[in-house]
């Protein structure tokens, strides 16, 4: 959760309520970074997305979380194990992708232990929603599904609803054209589902809960919604990832540099907040860091380098007099001296960018590739 808040949690409301996190996506729009890690391991202000989601759930009194996993599942299991923040973590593994509805049915044995509804969260959403509010609203209606709804300027990327004054969703349209959207209220990727959902979703079948299940529930007057305000980011694209990082930095590092242990910063380095710097990082003299920069664990930034509005993954090496603006640099990448990397460029894990190279907007470099000459047009180096 973005805002640190102490909740007085009504135990009766969340007792036995479990949460299912859909964590099996391939993250195709975030390649090449997602070639080597699941999307939920992407760091936002130096902490994995999943870690922030789990902390949020624990603060709302959830005690059992199920992760629906598929792509690179072993990385998630290795990093989070069987418990976190006092919550039990179970895993439901898909041998093949089952869409957004299939994983819910597959996890039935882990979720169907009582008559309580359960939360479902898209794993690539970061939000300041109060989960207690949507659980409470769900329990007051005869809904089979209650959706968190968020108002956006352009609803064409999302599922859009037409809702009446009683909170009942009359229709649900997945990714409509702007002119055909019934409203600007979108599916925010947070649901409360009743146990009756298991009787509706077929077993062992790839199915979209948005395209196939929610419209059916709307027709039966069993689909409700709860509008909320605050922070909401869908981390589907690189610019969304950078935006989420900026929002988090505004909250944790706007007034004071956010430092982890054993960071070494030269006295004449210039830091412009908000900035977060991870454990063991080294920031040399005459560097200019910020605003809106996250530097991961074990990163070295050498003399005279300038980094703005960027995310640097752990163990990257940024050599002297280099400029990085609006870019994402992968884990263990080596950026040599006098390099210029511009907006929306992504450098994959362990890639090497040679001395004096310029990468202009929207260049993507795949993991472990070496770039020896400048690239001045959008391109993917494979």
What does this structure look like?
There is one protein chain. By secondary structure, this protein is of the alpha/beta class. The chain folds into 2 domains: 228 residues, Spore Coat Polysaccharide Biosynthesis Protein SpsA, Chain A, CATH 3.90.550; 129 residues, UDP N-Acetylglucosamine Acyltransferase, domain 1. Helix content is 18%, strand content 30%. It is built from 8 helices and 35 strands. The strands form 7 sheets. The chain has an 8-stranded mixed β-sheet. Strand 2 and strand 3 form a beta hairpin.
Q: Profile the largest sheet.
A: 8 strands, mixed
Structural class: alpha/beta
Distance N to C terminus: 36 Å
Cα-atom radius of gyration: 22 Å
CATH homologous superfamily annotation of the largest domain: Spore Coat Polysaccharide Biosynthesis Protein SpsA, Chain A
Strand order of the largest sheet: 5-6-4-1-7-12-9-13
A few lines on this structure:
The chain has 382 residues and is of the alpha/beta class.
Layout of secondary structure:
Blueprint lengths: L10 H4 L4 E4 L20 E2 L2 E2 H11 L4 E6 L3 H8 L2 E2 L2 E7 L8 H5 L1 H4 L6 E5 L2 E3 L3 H9 L5 E7 L7 E5 L5 E6 L10 E9 L15 H11 L3 E5 L4 E3 L3 H15 L5 E2 L4 E2 L4 E2 L3 E3 L4 E2 L4 E2 L3 E3 L4 E2 L4 E3 L1 E3 L4 E2 L4 E3 L2 E2 L4 E2 L4 E2 L4 E2 L4 E2 L4 E2 L3 E3 L4 E2 L7 E3 L1
Parallel strand pairs: 1-4, 1-7, 4-6, 9-13, 15-18, 16-19, 17-20, 18-21, 19-22, 20-23, 21-24, 22-25, 23-26, 24-27, 25-28, 26-29, 27-30, 28-31, 29-32, 30-33, 31-34, 33-35
Antiparallel strand pairs: 2-3, 5-6, 7-12, 8-14, 9-12, 10-11
């Amino acid at each position: 959760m973005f805002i640190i808040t102490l909740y007085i949690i009504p135990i009766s409301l969340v007792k036995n309520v479990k949460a299912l996190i859909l964590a099996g996506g391939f993250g195709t729009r975030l390649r090449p970074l997602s070639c080597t890690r699941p999307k939920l391991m992407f760091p936002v202000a130096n902490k994995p997305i999943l870690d922030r989601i789990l902390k949020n759930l624990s603060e709302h009194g959830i005690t059992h979380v199920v992760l629906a996993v598929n792509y690179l599942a072993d990385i998630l299991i290795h990093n989070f194990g069987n418990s976190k923040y006092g919550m039990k973590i179970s895993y439901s593994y898909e041998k093949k992708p089952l869409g957004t509805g299939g994983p819910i049915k597959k996890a039935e044995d882990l979720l169907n232990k009582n008559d309580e509804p359960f939360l479902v969260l898209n794993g690539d959403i970061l939000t300041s929603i109060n989960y207690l509010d949507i659980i409470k609203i769900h329990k007051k209606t005869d809904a089979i599904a209650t959706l968190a709804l968020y108002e956006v300027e352009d609803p064409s990327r999302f599922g859009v609803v037409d809702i009446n004054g009683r909170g009942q969703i009359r229709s649900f349209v997945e990714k409509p054209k702007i002119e055909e959207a019934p409203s600007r209220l979108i599916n925010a990727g947070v649901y409360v589902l009743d146990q009756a959902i298991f009787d509706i979703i077929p077993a062992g079948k790839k199915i979209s809960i948005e395209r196939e299940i929610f419209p059916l529930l709307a027709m039966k007057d069993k689909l409700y919604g709860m509008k909320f305000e605050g922070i909401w980011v869908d981390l589907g694209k690189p610019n969304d990832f950078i935006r989420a990082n900026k929002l988090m930095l505004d909250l944790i590092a706007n007034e004071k540099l956010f430092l982890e242990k054993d960071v070494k910063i030269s006295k004449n380095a210039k830091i412009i907040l908000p900035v977060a710097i991870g454990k063991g990082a080294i920031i040399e003299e005459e560097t200019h860091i910020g605003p809106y920069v996250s530097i991961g664990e074990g990163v070295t930034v050498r003399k005279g380098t300038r980094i703005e509005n960027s995310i640097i993954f752990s163990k990257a090496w940024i050599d002297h007099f280099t400029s990085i603006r609006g870019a994402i640099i992968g884990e263990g990448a080596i950026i040599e001296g006098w390099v210029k990397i511009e907006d929306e460029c992504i450098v994959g894990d362990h890639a090497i960018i040679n001395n004096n190279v310029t990468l202009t907007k929207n260049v993507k470099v795949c993991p472990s590739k070496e770039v020896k000459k400048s690239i001045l047009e959008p391109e993917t180096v494979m």
